[in-house]
Design brief:
Number of helices: 1
Structural class: mainly beta
Order of helices and strands: EEEHEEEE
Strand order of the largest sheet: 6-3-4-5-7
CATH topology: Quinone Oxidoreductase, Chain A, domain 1
CATH architecture: Alpha-Beta Complex
Number of domains: 1
Radius of gyration: 14 Å
Largest sheet: 5 strands, antiparallel
Number of strands: 7
Shape: globular
Strand content: 35-45%
CATH superfamily: Medium-chain alcohol dehydrogenases, catalytic domain
Helix content: under 10%
Amino acid sequence: MANHTRGWWISEDGSDSLSASFREDIEPAELGVGTVTIDVDYSALNYKDALALGGSRGVVRTTPLIPGIDAAGIIRESSDPGFGVGEKVVLTGWGYGESRHGGLAETLVADSQHLVKIPGALS
């Protein structure tokens, strides 16, 4: 189970509503494609995330979806030479948690152009 990740998962529930559940078995392939894999340390639970977890279609643009429009963590894998393994990064916006998987999971796959490096002086 080491390749799996845990996180919130929003899916269609067969009616006109969305269903949110916590999954322990999200496959790496389900995380999508990007240039950087991040081990998420922090993710804010903000208004959009609360709406998404409550089943609001006004926020969720695609399903299935991991919510979380903000995330901060440490790079585990990178195919971008500008972002190295072990670097601390943050992201917010760019459709994460709305139209692409977001930060309310242990692992996030992101495009490096959406990341901001966290300066070493900040914890």
